[in-house]
């Protein structure tokens, strides 16, 4: 067997969209790739594509807001070998979903995934949760942030900060992604006890199907304006995110856990410190 082949290692990726595919290609060579998505057709298309490129792909239809489905996903992955990496890209955006669905998928789903995979984490396991620059820009009271970080998953939906009736899709998304950042920070303690790490990435505007939907939606002009004012002056690519994930799950990043990496081409910097003419 070739020395680079590690058939007992498993990479789990939730979300079969642009970022998920780019990450699968970057991390999946010679490993089992467990690919999960809620949309069966999208999952099938992605699976066929990756298998055609030579990857060992195990598709699992999964609703990340369903505790049983997430627990089953973790068990399937663990049955294939040692779980090396979990990358949670699954989520919905303001143009795709209502506030209640954003809370269920983006907040509860992330918490469920961190809970379900913790028992299988071991030395060298790394989980990466995709948040958003929207979370970086969210400004929440300290008490609300602590609640989002530490409330048991079964009780999260009862927090007043997550009441869908008090939010529109845009504000729900910002709160949800801030919750992801905070949840990862708090989870790092338990994961560290198992020799594992957990981090989050907050992408800016990325050219994925979800990103293109947002550009075509009501906020499209504002988003294009943010790109134009940013230092990079370009939209991000799925490979930009995959490159960061590749580093974060590698031994080179072994001292990085419980934190967030903002990958936005400088959009947040430009908003906070606009250029003077």
Short summary of the structure?
This protein is α/β, with parallel strands linked by helices and 277 residues long. 47% of the residues lie in helices and 15% in strands. It has one domain (9-204, 238-263): 3-Layer(aba) Sandwich (Rossmann fold).
What does this 3D model show about the protein?
This protein has 11 helices and 7 strands. α1 packs across α10, α3 (67-80) runs parallel beside α4 (99-117) and α6 packs across α7. The protein has helices spanning 18-27, 40-52, 67-80, 99-117, 133-137, 142-150, 169-193, 209-216, 220-229, 238-248, 267-272; strands at residues 9-14, 32-37, 56-61, 82-88, 126-130, 197-203, 260-263. It has a 7-stranded parallel β-sheet with strand order 3-2-1-4-5-6-7, with helices on both faces. It is α/β, with parallel strands linked by helices and 277 residues long. The chain has one domain: 3-Layer(aba) Sandwich (Rossmann fold).
CATH-defined topology: Rossmann fold
Shape: globular
Order of helices and strands: EHEHEHEHEHHHEHHHEH
Sheet having the most strands: 7 strands, parallel
What is the averaged pLDDT score?
Answer: 93
Q: What's the CATH superfamily, by name?
A: NAD(P)-binding Rossmann-like Domain
Q: How large, in whole angstroms, is the Cα Rg?
A: 18 Å
Question: Runs with pLDDT <50, length 5+?
Answer: 1-5
Total individual domains:
1
Summary tags:
Rossmann fold; disordered N terminus; 277 residues; globular; alpha/beta; 15% strand
